[in-house]
Structures are given as structure tokens and as C-alpha cells.
Amino acid sequence: MANSKFEYVRHFEQADALLPNTWIVIRLDGRAFTKMCAKYKFTKPNDRRALDLMNTAAKAVVSDLPEITIAYGVSDEYSFVFHKTCSLFERRASKLVSTVVSTFTANYVYSWSAHFPDTPLSFPLPTFDGRAVCYPSVENLRDYLSWRQVDCHINNLYNTTFWALVQMGGLENKDAEKALAGTVASDKNEILFSRFQINYNNEPEIFRKGSVVFRDYELVDPESHQVAEEMDSLAEPTRQSKKQTDKDRRRRSRARLVVEHLDIIKDDFWDRRPWILSNKPGLAPKEPRRESLFKARSSFLLRRAALLALLSSLDSFRDASVVDANSSATDGDPSSRCIERVPSRNPPRTNEV
């Protein structure tokens, strides 16, 4: 930035670097999404197209920022977790929040037509707000994510029961609210099963558990790995060269991203995926045998087709060479072009005995 007499205005900027050596969680929420859901007539209680669109935008954010180790989304919100060693933008909150929110919003709008091909967007366009929160320990981080997943379950159970009463039970919205006032989870499950034959446990997991975005590596056996140690020690940064750090970052950026609908409250999820906390790339996942055989067969067929095409080209080239050779032989004798060979009228001679 060039020096000038106006540069003093920079002193009004406030430092907003987030606390070092802490997990950074950036949570974004849809703005005025209640009105937007009504405007575009989202399916109640859950619109799978809208959830898939949220996941598409979230995957784009995680792919664009290798510093993100895991993301969790439900309804119109998404939480993105930056590792405690993150130094992106010098950990400035304004930079991190604005980058995540703008990247997510841009991809949400861009991908809309892929999920809602018959419903074009119109103004006002969807927008999101965001905030950054720091968590000092792995326990705090996991409790935060557990809180969001428990909230997903509570809200979805309520909404599933509420809309069953309205859509299938014929109640008005206010009457459904009164019917559910003061009920607990067991009461709602009983209403769903006894009145509408709905087993809540059979509802799609994306509705009950939300969506988890992370980089996929080979799963680890907790009993034979260091994950048996304390989670916080696993997440502690290790000294390594800048070259190795850049190499790990590139490996993370090339890793396959997956969207799963899993239980992230229990230890099993974290024990089998230690790279999420350690921020160290794992081993590439092993492909299922059937998928490997399919890829091998496809590769064989492609090589076979290429070989046949090559042989066909060689045959065509050889035929063309023969024609060229014959043409060259007749070019030297002009009379040969107009002389036509006429079969002899005399029968062939035979040896007389």
C-alpha cells in the first residue's frame, strides 16, 4: 500500500485475530429462510433437495479451504471447523468469516438450478450470516458438535410429528402446536407410530442426524492405533518443516471429500478417523472389491478398444500405401492409361498328344 497523508485512517482498524492454539468454528445461518421456504414451497418437514444443495455448497467450501478439518450441517445452518494450528489470514475473524460465508453463498446460488431445475431463483436472493467462536480443547469442540446434532434430532422429531398432525391428521397449525405442548420424545414417537404408523427410527438419517463433511481416508482400528491416547494429545501440533507442511496441505486438498450422515457424538466416529483431530493426512481408502473389478474390466475394455483402433489404422495405412505404389508405377507410361487389356478370343493352346 502506497504511503500518503491519508494512510493514518488505517489506525482506526481493530485487530481481530482469534485466540491462538484454539479450534475455530465458523457457523453460518440462512437469513430469513422461513420466508424463503414459503416462497419456493419447500417440502415439509424436510426438503431433500434443499439439504442436498446445502451439502453441495459446504463441500465446495471445504474443498476450497484445506485448513477445514470437518463440517457439520443441519437445516439452514452449517458449522466449519478449522484446526487449532490454522494460520490462514493470520487467524483474523473478519477474514475467515467473510471468506466462508461468501464462498458458501456463491456456491449455494450457483448450484441452485442443479437441485431445483424447475424453480428459478428470483430476488431477493438467498443470503447467510456467520460468526466465529473459539474452543480451547477437543472436549469443547466435540461438545459443540454434539450440541448441534442433538439439536438436529430434537427439532426433526418435533417437526416430523407436527407436520404429520397437520398433513395427515387434518389439524390446523395452532392445534398441532397445542397437541405437542409439554410432550417429550417418547410421546412424539407414540403419536407417530400409533396414529400414523410412522417409525421415527426408519426416517432417513440425513433428517435425523444431519450431514458431516470430511476428507475420506482409510479407517483405523482404534485398538491398534495411537487414538487410544488422549484426544487432546492427538491434536497437539508437531514440529515439521515448511516443506512438509505445504505437502500435507496439498495432500488434504487432493483427498476425496464425502458427505455422511453419522453419529458424531459417540467416540467411534473420532477413534476411527484420527486425521480429523491430528490434521495429518491418512492413507487413501481401499476400494471395495466389486468396484476394483469393475474398474479393472473397464480399463481392459478401453485398452482393447484402443488396440483394435490402432490395428484398423495400420490396415488403412497399408492399403493406402499399396494404392499409392500402383499409381506411381503407371505414372511413368502415359500410354498405359488408355490401353485396356482385352481378353484373347483364341482359346488357350493345349498340348496335343
UniProtKB/TrEMBL annotation:
Keywords: GTP-binding, Magnesium, Metal-binding, Nucleotide-binding, Nucleotidyltransferase, Transferase, tRNA processing. It is an enzyme of class 2 (transferase). Coiled coil: none annotated. Gene3D superfamilies: 3.30.70.3000. GO terms for molecular function: GTP binding; magnesium ion binding; tRNA guanylyltransferase activity. Its EC number is 2.7.7.79. One of its GO terms (biological process) is tRNA modification. Residues 6-136 form the tRNAHis guanylyltransferase catalytic domain. Residues 139-266 form the Thg1 C-terminal domain. Residues 228-252, 324-353 are annotated as: Disordered. It comes from the Eukaryota. It catalyses: a 5'-end ribonucleotide-tRNA(His) + GTP + ATP + H2O = a 5'-end phospho-guanosine-ribonucleotide-tRNA(His) + AMP + 2 diphosphate + H(+). Its cofactor is Mg(2+). Belongs to the tRNA(His) guanylyltransferase family. Adds a GMP to the 5'-end of tRNA(His) after transcription and RNase P cleavage. This is tRNA(His) guanylyltransferase.
